[in-house]
Design brief:
This protein is of the alpha/beta class and 409 residues long. It is 40% helix and 11% strand.
Length: 409
Amino acid sequence: MPAAKGALTRRSFIAGAALAPALWGARGRAEEAVPVSQRFARTPPPVTAPDQLLDVMEFEPLARTALPPAHWGYLATGVDGDLTVARNMDAFLHYQIRARRFVDLTHLDTARTVLGVRWPSPVYLSAVSSQRAFHPEGELAVARAARERATQLMLSTGSSFAVEAVTQARGAPVWQQLYATDDFTVTEALVRRAEKAGATAIVLTVDAKEVRRNNETLRRAMLADNRTCTACHVDNTHDMWRGRAMFQGLDTSRVTALSPPALTTQFLDRLRETVKGRLMVKGIVTGEDAALALAHGVDGLVVSNHGGRNEETLRASIDCVPEVVAAVKGKVPVFVDGGIRRGADIFKALALGATAVGIGRPQAWGLAAFGQPGVERVLDLYNTELAAIMRQAGTPTLADITPAHVLRA
């Protein structure tokens, strides 16, 4: 019986199969010549929101694009060849994390009580000066991000906005970083202003000894910037005591440097008598100086080389943590900043004995790229990554993170 019109018979199927190479052979050969990776590839969509970024380093090129050359250079620069800047980040690769199993991780807690205040995360926003150079809302946007993420903020003496406005934007007290200058009358006035605004700690920076640093990256960037510096900088200088918000109303005519030339333990004693609340010291990198600071009444130490901006020592901040922790013997909290770019870096710092970690340049990248939402996303990425590595390491709380969880490679 003949097949119905249009019906598919075994014979017609076989015949069709035989004709197929002739029909699509040229197209098939052309497709096979294109690698699969290209055949199914597409151009990624443009980044238009901070939640599209997957790690904090992705904010860096966006910030560079958003900023004038000189402002980018100010943010990125180290001293001399920027080698200590790079070493701060690279040193974290020398530490391996020992992952543990058979641990109940039903409840994970990244919170920690720091100087009597419960933090949801061991991350704080470290002092970064002149943040209006990165975004019109500057420190106010950062403070609002700190409020939204319940994050401690350390405000720079070189802030674009005064401590009163920043405290109001955060809705909670800040820590006031202190450049003591070489005029103690100014030092006292800065301390009193911060304390009156509610600052719960004064954080003396002790590594700003040079009036003029050899910031090569900044100087090259300034040559590539077509603007007139006097539009922003008084007397065409970057001396922060000339016109910065925290110095308004003060007689700074005798100030020539951010730090007294005789920054000794005697100076520390004098400052300790002046500060009514907590006094911390930022810029400690050795056990000897940690012990001296502790003996002269400080309430906390920040292990820091100023992000590599002041000195080309080639010694990373993270490598300094163990000896500082050993020197203070748990008597005061030890913080660290410099080169922290991943949640795993935070974990390593805590395992080596740090109480919490400060974030510097990445907050400014987020600010420059997206304003307040950018800073919030930076904090979220750090905290998400920290929680992930805590699970893999078998540490349900920060207290469970110990030196046994890291190895020096």
